[in-house]
Design brief:
single chain, alpha+beta, Calcium-transporting ATPase, cytoplasmic transduction domain A, 5 domains, seven-stranded mixed beta sheet, 27 helices, about 50% helix, about 15% strand, elongated, disordered N terminus, cell membrane, ATPase_P-typ_P_site, ATP binding, membrane
């Protein structure tokens, strides 16, 4: 069976990859090519590995493909098509059903005439309204991927073909098939199953569209146009997708910032609450960065576009949410394996049911056998089983996005609830990450201002928040900075480079010790600053200690609450930071964190994660810097701050858009609720099929004397799929 599944997936990718003449193009290549050309990518809700540049049906499960990224358009073509087929043929279904059930009492037609009337009225229902189901069923056979459409196609097809033959050539049937003067026909079973399946698909499609509500709300944040300023000063409104990197754009009061960029002229207050959650607008001036889709509340700004299209922060969030919604949960693997065997088993049970009733059942045994076999095929459709986890994942990731928590994939949702240990960085994670310069001190050879000037000159090549604070302080004091050459970053512990012909090293005690530089002359000063919670860096010039600089980084307002909530949830919190141990302990003491590791290198954080995992711990790592990336990737769940570096976010499984640690508790709660919801869906699907198949086969007939009509089987099948979707939607209210 494993070989069969592998073959099916390989064949599906081969068939669905239609963007290139290369028949071996993978699904990943389809996605990459489509993104580069701007085409829409279509995927399957139940099998996210399927990628195609055009709409169609999934070759594995037969479900209709839908856009990888939802659009703001509410119209679903498949929903519109199914609705049209359903409503046009519903009157025919009703008439055929009334004739089949009450025709002999109403005496509208002679018996033979009534059979032909039912045939004429049933044909458009089965052959036109049910055509999509037969096409999907044929594809499942051709692709050797039996699924729900295999069963529906076999069930309705068998009932209809049998009834047509019984109408046109009644003489070929033995007397056992006669009932009330004619060969029994079951046109009503075929048309009712088709209509109920259409109705069930309509309910499911409407419900599935609601799972994309979060992404649609994010898409709705972006403005439709931008006001471009030409080189000659003229201005014009252009569609947002016509904006290019480097364009000058005017943002007037009350307008949304169109794309990510940097302010060239003007000052204003920008409402960034849609990303940061901060209720107060942020003042922006020349040189400050602005984010697309945020609201300009007061003054006019002239900005230069830096990131456009799929590169903007908003687009990356949308893409991350969409990818997470399409990822497959580990729990789904079991359901997929069971479903593959299940369809084949159901076909076998239907065949056995037909012959057991025909050979040993009461008269007319073969008629009972046919009807019960059709009921087995219909009621056992594994659609509910296939939808059980994807629907929960789609709702959970959308719900998380609205709360500022982005899950990279379904595995992150499933693993988050298991976390019992959290390793957390300090700068930018527990603290604001926007430190301010505090103090500079020099040895007898260097004045404090010279220490600041040299350090700022060296730090011009660094992206670290501490470096930005030092450079900003030097510029505010009017110090003239020199160019830096041969800049090198000792990730997490310091930097080095050449300034004015002198070799400079700026970093913590660990870096100086590695370089063989004695920092003891300033140890007492450094310790006093660290006890106040300041971060201390030593400056060495040509391998001799020149001075130190201290920077303070305030703790985020919500950190205390977040730490307390996590500790109450029995999660052990460990601080691991590249800052000095004294500084780290000062912050930890304020936050009631017991275990602290200071002056750690990236490999030390990585080893700490590995050591805890070897003890059987389920470890989450929260950080925002490049130096956190290895540990983020190694942890069972990596949690990145959305306000941090791209490298950190790319290494993590969960991103907190607002940089608010309270999002960890939100993510854990959402994880717990989602897993419960997935288990409910899977349990319901298994129980439904376990009970439905034997009842449809007639197992209870000797006890109750009742059989399950294929029409009721079709209704139960449709309602089971819809119930799974609606149960998943409850996550929007419970979290």
């Amino acid at each position: 069976m494993a070989d069969h599944k592998h073959h099916s997936e390989h064949q599906s990718q081969h068939q669905m990859s239609t963007l290139s003449p290369n028949s071996q193009e993978s699904a990943a290549q389809v996605k990459e090519t489509a993104q580069s050309t701007g085409d829409i990518i279509y995927t399957c809700p139940m099998h996210p590995e399927i990628r195609r540049s055009q709409p169609g049906d999934c070759p594995i499960c037969g479900m209709s493909l839908e856009p990888l990224l939802p659009t703001l358009e509410d119209e679903n073509p498949e929903l519109k098509d199914f609705s049209r087929r359903f409503w046009i043929t519903l009157p025919l279904t009703i008439v055929v059903t009334v004739l089949a059930m009450f025709g002999h009492q109403l005496s509208w037609f002679e018996t033979s005439t009534q059979t032909w009337v039912e045939l004429v009225l049933s044909t458009p229902v089965v052959l036109w309204a049910g055509l999509p189901f037969f096409i999907r069923g044929w594809h499942s056979v051709r692709n050797r991927s039996p699924n729900m459409w295999t069963l529906i196609g076999l069930g309705t097809g068998a009932a209809f073909v049998y009834s047509v033959i019984a109408t046109v050539f009644p003489q070929v049937f033995p007397e056992a098939f006669l009932s009330m003067g004619r060969v029994s026909v079951y046109f009503e079973a075929a048309v009712v199953i088709i209509s109920l399946t259409l109705f069930g698909q309509m309910l499911e499609l409407r419900a599935r569209s609601q799972t994309s509500a979060a992404i649609k709300s994010l898409l709705g944040l972006a403005p439709k146009t931008a006001r471009r300023v030409a080189d000659d000063g003229t201005e014009e409104d252009i569609p947002l997708n016509h904006v290019h990197k480097g364009d000058k754009l005017r943002v007037r009061p009350g307008e949304k910032v169109p794309v990510d960029g940097v302010v060239q002229d003007g000052t204003s207050l920008i409402d960034e609450s849609m990303l940061t959650g901060e209720p107060l607008p942020v003042r922006k001036k020349t040189g400050d960065k602005v984010i697309g889709a945020t609201m300009n509340t007061s003054g006019a700004l002239l900005i230069q576009a830096e990131k456009v299209g799929s590169a903007t922060v908003l687009s990356q969030i949308v893409q991350m949410v969409a990818e997470a919604q399409r990822s497959r949960a580990p729990m789904q693997r079991m359901a997929d394996l069971v479903a593959g065997y299940f369809v084949l088993a159901v076909i076998g049970i239907a065949i056995i049911t037909f012959f057991v009733w025909g050979l040993w059942g009461p008269e007319p045994g073969w008629v009972y056998g046919l009807i019960n076999a059709v009921a087995v095929l219909i009621i056992a459709c594994p659609c509910a089983l296939g939808l059980a986890t994807p629907m929960s994942i789609m709702v959970a990731t959308g719900r998380g996005a609205t709360k500022g928590v982005l899950f990279r994939d379904a595995a992150a949702i499933e693993n988050m609830r298991k976390v019992d240990t959290l390793i957390i960085d300090k700068t930018g994670t527990l603290t604001e990450g926007r430190p301010g310069f505090d103090h500079a001190a020099g040895t007898h050879d260097y004045e404090a201002t010279e220490v600041l000037r040299l350090a700022a000159s060296l730090d011009q090549g660094s992206e670290h928040p501490l470096a930005a604070a030092i450079v900003s302080a030097a510029k505010e004091q009017g110090l003239s900075l020199a160019a830096v050459q041969d800049f090198d970053s000792e990730s997490g512990i310091g930097v080095s480079g050449t300034v004015e012909g002198r070799r400079l090293i700026l970093g913590n005690t660990t870096l100086l010790q590695a370089m063989g530089i004695d920092a003891s002359p300033l140890k007492q000063t450094a310790d006093a600053l660290r006890e106040q919670g300041a971060s201390v860096m030593f400056l060495a010039v040509d391998n001799s200690l020149a001075g130190l600089l201290s920077v303070t980084d305030p703790i985020k307002p919500n950190t205390q609450e977040a730490v307390k909530n996590l500790q109450e949830a029995n999660i052990q919190i460990i601080m691991a930071t590249g800052d000095g141990l004294a500084t780290a302990k000062a912050v930890a003491s304020e936050l009631d964190i017991d275990e602290v590791h200071g002056e750690v290198k990236p490999e030390d954080k990585l080893n700490l994660v590995a050591d805890l995992q070897s003890q059987g711990r389920i470890v989450a790592m929260a950080g925002d810097g490049i130096n956190d990336a290895p540990a983020l990737a190694k942890a069972n769940v990596g949690i990145a701050m959305g306000t941090g570096t791209d490298v950190a976010m790319n290494s993590a499984q969960v991103t907190l858009v607002k940089g608010d640690l309270r999002g960890i508790a939100i993510a854990r709660n959402l994880s717990e609720k989602t897993i419960i919801n997935m288990k409910q869906n899977l349990g319901f699907a298994f129980i439904y099929n376990a009970l439905g198949v034997p009842i449809a086969a007639g197992l209870l007939y000797p006890i109750t004397g009742m059989l399950l009509s294929p029409m009721f089987a079709a209704l139960a099948m449709s309602l089971s799929s819809a119930s799974v979707v609606f149960n998943a939607l409850r996550l929007r209210r419970k979290t």
